[in-house]
Amino acid sequence: MYHKVKVQISNRHVHLTKETYEKLFDEELTKKNDLHQIGQFAANQTVDILTDKYEFKNVRIVGPFRKYDQVEISNNDARKLGLKPPVRTSGNLDNSESITIRTPKATLKLDNACIIADRHVHFNTNEANKYGVKDKDKLKVHILGEKRGTIEAFAKVSDDGFFELHLDTDDANAFLLNNDDELVLEIED
Q1: What is the pLDDT of residues 76-106, one digit of tens each?
Q2: Domain range holding 133?
Q3: Are 161 and 124 in contact (CB under 8 A)?
Q4: pTM of the predicted structure, to 2 decimals
Q5: Contact partners, residue 47, CB within 8 Å, separation at least 6
């Protein structure tokens, strides 16, 4: 079966625990704007992420707080930083890269915190049941634009999922994609 799915491009960003956030800031985490994933938001607060080789300033924090600290970057970012983070699902941080984050208040080294996020399609539980998709199922996505191709992504099922494909900036640039472009999701019967 084939279904249209919109793409959202995920730039480098940071997820923090409340404890880590309070080491970095003396203010409440505040919302800049809501994201499509229900309950998630881009915060007004940013951090710098850095290594001895390079740094990115004003990297957006995504709220709400998580149970783990995670920095998501692209492979191009990783090259500049001199890192080789694994491609992983969110929260799978074992043996991932360490990275330093900085604010005017503090500088912290986060061990096992930096990954390249794997491509994934968000589903809420009802949509997943409707399409016969289970969490972590492998899916094919067909890109029909100027630079055509087929990529593999996995299903990410949650009660508050909003149906869309998440790609990092490297994948989006490789296929000349923009936010809200429609792609074709292939789901086997």
Answers
A1: 999 999 999 999 999 999 999 999 999 999 9
A2: 2-7+119-186
A3: yes
A4: 0.94
A5: 14, 24, 59, 61, 101, 102, 103
